[in-house]
Amino acid sequence: MSKQHSFSDRPALDTALAAHIAERLAADIASRGKASLAVSGGSTPQGMFAALSRQHLPWDQVWITLVDERWVDADSPDSNEKLVRENLLQNAAAEAHFIGLKGNAADAAAGLQEVTARLDELPLPLSCAVLGMGGDGHTASWFPQASNLQQLIDPRGEALLGCCDPVTAPHQRITFTLPAILAAGEIILHITGEEKRAILAEASEKRYPIAAITEQQSNPASIWWAP
Ligand SMILES: O=C1O[C@H](COP(=O)(O)O)[C@@H](O)[C@H](O)[C@H]1O
Question: Which one GO biological process term can you cite for this protein (predicted)?
Answer without folding.
Answer: carbohydrate metabolic process
